[in-house]
Each structure stands twice: as structure tokens, then as C-alpha cells.
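Appendix B, example 12.
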Amino acid sequence: MSASMNEVFERIKNDVIDFAQKIVQTKSMTCDEVNVAKLVKEKMEELGYDEVTIDATGNVLGRIGYGAKKILFDSHMDTVTVIDSDQWADDPYGGIIKDGKLYGRGSVDMKCPLVASIYGAYVAKEMGIPKDTSVYVSASVMEEDYDGEAVRLLLTENPIHPDWVVICEPTNMKVGVGHRGRALIEIKMAGKGCHASNPDNGINPVYLMTEVIKRVEQDAEQLKKMPGEKGSVAITNIYCSTASNNSVPQDATIILDRRLALGETEESVGKEMDDIVVGTGASWQYSDIPGKSWTGKDFLFHSFLPAWTIEKEHPLVVGAAKAYEEVKAQSPELFRMQASTNGVTTAGLMHIPTIVFGPGDLAMAHARDEYCEIDSNVRCGEDICSIVLPVNKINIGHINLSFEVEMKNSAKLWIKICDLALFAVAGK
């Protein structure tokens, strides 16, 4: 007989918080996630996952169940670095809990969602996962600098073939049904270097680039006027190749972050870039960025990642919404995200039905004093969350649980909703 939700959480409530603290205290910057990867693998094995592996790229992949229907919960375990530690109220890697909040770099983006997904699958197993379903949980690497590349490698080099994907980025418990894509573009202007004391002997590419910059600014204004979902463009970096600070540079480069609306392709954006550089002498290309994962795997990241969406009538959205309604007694808010996630690969490139759904406020991502809310003040001693919410009855398929708890938007609510979504999506 499967265990009740109360029983499961009575056993794991402290472990969930302790493990969240532990991985926040463990540094895992992009391409250096090895220590967190080991902790995640050990925790999945400890929780009795049916299979746990670390692939050639360094992604941790856990599986529960042996069914043909497959759902993948993905969270990245890498974080951005900290460049202002002296301005944090506490150690960015201290994992301090105070005032009901777990503080630290990566707490919301996205180590707490990762912990929720790890334990969510475990709870599903304890409650009795449908026999025709397999639940995969991935702790992916390199997301912050290489959107979706690690998941692309995970899904192309491992025979998973998920039917559905849940990207567990923090959404404040809203259901993300898509977001814009992203392209990185390099525009280079050649010049002629010389000694700065005699600038007329050279050709300064920075001056030549001013026309390109002006056109980029005009392009940004035009994109704002487009109907429907709008793309955007921003200059995010400019640099020169120069012999020294007393030399005219030999070339100059600007980097564009081009956010993509639905339907925009490499060809359509390429035409836009052609118009920006025509007659200026500049050249452009999509950035192909080499990298090396923590395992030593070399890769080349092609930075054109299309926008994506999923219809609200899709069974994955309907199943997640039904589970949400059972837990919160109201319909979830469906929205399109502004930020990019690993969904650019699962949905944008591979066309796998995908939603984005997880605990925490995305506004805290990359921010000073980053935190994720944790509140253990609940009836039944089970809660690890934050907005007061009575839950009286859950009844999906063979699950019929009655209990009342108080909780806020956090891991436990997320776990409940995702567990129930598994059953709803599986047609139970």
C-alpha cells in the first residue's frame, strides 16, 4: 500500500531543508558543477531512485519507474558567480536561513527548485507511481552561459525520449507556457592599427562602428513597434583587438543579445543583420561559443535558440492545471516568460511539449542577497513553504488524501502539484 503524503513528509521534511542548505553552500559556477553533481547523485541513490547516472557532459540523470510514458523534470545546478560579496548581508555561500528565507547564490536560481524536483519524484514513488509512467529528474549543467546546450547533449546522447518536460525554473507557481528565444550575434569591424601618437596612420574601427551602433538602436525601436509578441535587441558588449592602450585598434567587435519572438528564424534574423551592416564594411555571424564541461567534454554552442509555446489545451497543461486546482482550489495563471530557460532546447529545438513551473521569485535570480522562501511553521509539522494555503482534499485517480496544512509558495506545494500532475497527465 502506498504511503500518505503526511507520512512521507513527516519523514523527509528536515532532510529537504538540510539538503537545500548543503547544495547552496556548495559552489557550482558554470562548467564547475562537479561537487554539486556528486551530492545530487548521492541523494538520488539514497532516496532509492531506480537508476542514477552522470553522463559525459556532467548532467545528473535520475529515473523512477519503468513505464513507457516518460516525463522529465529539469533543473540546472550551475549558478552565476558573485562579484559583490562584500555587499551581501551574509556569506553568499553560507546557506543562512533567517526570517523564513534560505539565502545564498543559486538558492532560487535554481537549487531550491532542483531539490523540490528530486524529492518530488521520490514522493511520487512513495505514493505509488502509475506503472505505465517513468519519471526522470535531470540536474543539468552550463545553463547560465550556454542556454539549453547541456540538455541538448543530454537528450541526444541518452535514449530518454521524454513525452513531456517540466522546466523547474522559479515562476512563483505560475505555469509558463512558453517564452522568447535568444540569439547572440557578433558584428566585427576591421580597421588598421597604428601608434596612437599618429592616429592618421591607421583606421580606427571604433569610429567606423558608430554607424552600425546607430542602426542597431534604430532596429531596437522598430522591434518595439511589431505586432504581438516582440523581439528585442541590445548591445551587451564591445571590445577591440589592440596592441596596447596607446595603439589604435586593428578591429572592433560588438555583441548583440537578440531576443526572438515566435516564428523568427535564423534566415529572418539574418536578413535583419544584413541590413544593419550593409555598406558599413562590417561583417556579422551568429556566435559559436566553444566550451568545456566539468567532465572535460568539449562542445560548441551555436547561439540561435528559437522561441516556443504550448497550447493551453495540451494534455500536459491540462494535467498540471487540474493538479494545481486540486491543491489550491483555483486555476493557475498561465503566462509567457520573458527570460530564457532550457525550454529553448526541449520545446524550441526538439518540439517536446514543455511547461515551466517551479517555486520562488525569478526576480531574485542573480540578485544580491538572493533567497528562496522557506517556512516550516505548519500544522502537522510538514511544511517547508511560504503563502498560507489550506488543502483539504486531493482526489486524482486512485489518490484520495484528506488533510489540512498551511503553506506558502515553495517546494512542498510544488512537489504536491507536480506529483499530482504525473497522475493527471498519465490519464489516471
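The two ends are 17 Å apart (CA to CA). Confidence is low (pLDDT under 50) at residues 375-411.
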